[in-house]
Amino acid sequence: MTERLYYHDPTALEFEGRITATGQQDKVWYTILDRSAFYPTSGGQLHDVGLLNGHRVIDVTEEPDEKTPAVKHITADRVGNVGQTVTGVVDADRRQDNRQKHTAQHIVSHVFSSLARLATVSVHLGIDYGAVELETGRVEEPSLERAERRANEIITECHLVDILFATRDEVARMPLRRRPPDREKLRIVRIGSLDWSACGGTHCSNTGEVGVIKLIGVDTMRGHALIKFLAGRQALEDYGRRWRISTDLATSLTCSVDDLPDRIAGLARETEEYRHQLRQAEKELLTTRAERSAAASRDIAGVPAAVVVDRHLDPKKATQLARYIADRNRGVAVVLVGDRISVAASEGGRASAGRLVRRLCELAGGRGGGNDVQAQAGNVAIESEESLQRLLMKVLNEA
């Protein structure tokens, strides 16, 4: 069993503890101490990181299958021997982020419970954001706005966040937001007179330390609404990043930040119009090119055949061009782009595009296939238009 120092003092970052067990598991080392300030991943909250006798702690877990699980500190190397006293230092930034995020979660859960009678089903406190899963399938935008406003009011009211240890009988008389596990003694986190919750996580000393809460979106989990949020320093960093991006965009588009939505919507409409015009121009260009190539077709073994080599043509357009040519010369067309060939043959004609591709691959390498009217192949070793002409002549004369 490990005495968990953060249970009583979430601000504790440095401590000494005695090694009670150590070993190697899955190519990393674990160390169990008689006392520790490192928080293990549990209750939806991420573990602490830091140093243990100078060794970087990369994970902190709970030993399973124990009534009072021990805390396992995971490191790349061995920290020390059983009985040795070691020094631990918890990363202050990670701890602060976790404290702000977890306290914010209690506030968000309380707000949705008190304003909308929506219970929290599960909690996620990840690296990128926090989230609460609510016992409802949908939350409308006005409800989100009211919840965010009330959450930030609670922050500015600077309610004390107390840690209480209560017996089963004492817990029964407390107005807990959620039914707690049935244990002889529970750790209760109380936010002023607003919210009471059984919780083992690390929290701020008062709601003012959370700084700010920003709801950032709603997803769906197991048919429930998942409310995502940012808190404290993470929310400020996100705001700073978005401010820089929006300011840079406004500068580049010569408009104010408030005008960005209309400006970008206008650009999107213009872009779609240009794309439409480009598609039309490409189609006309391919049609003109197909007619020119079809007119230049050579008769090989009674089959009109056209060859096009273009290193710069879009491979997707190569298939289309081959089809256009074959429809016009009523024979075959082979288009080479890099190491890819597209072959088309007119329907009902003497040549089969699929057989042509298979035979060309036998002669020039590569792999591909297709049907009688359309086929493709890649990784072919054909260097020039003359080489392709010779190969095509050989294949058609064999047929």
Please describe what this structure looks like.
- The protein has 399 residues and is α+β, with helices and mostly antiparallel strands.
- It has three domains: 3-90, Elongation Factor Tu (Ef-tu), domain 3; 95-240, Threonyl-tRNA Synthetase, Chain A, domain 2, CATH 3.30.980.10; 293-398, Diaminopimelate Epimerase, Chain A, domain 1, CATH 3.10.310.40.
- Helices cover 36% and strands 30% of the residues.
- It has helices spanning 92-116, 141-156, 168-172, 232-252, 260-295, 315-329, 353-364, 385-398; strands at residues 3-4, 14-25, 28-33, 35-36, 50-52, 55-62, 71-75, 85-90, 120-125, 130-134, 161-167, 185-191, 195-198, 213-221, 224-231, 298-300, 303-309, 332-337, 340-345, 367-370, 374-378.
- It has a six-stranded antiparallel beta barrel with strand order 2-3-7-6-5-8. It has a six-stranded mixed sheet with strand order 16-17-18-19-21-20. The protein has a four-stranded antiparallel sheet with strand order 9-10-15-14.
- A hairpin with a 4-residue loop joins strand 9 and strand 10.
- Helix 1 (92-116) crosses helix 2 and helix 5 packs parallel to helix 6.
- It is elongated and about 100 Å long.
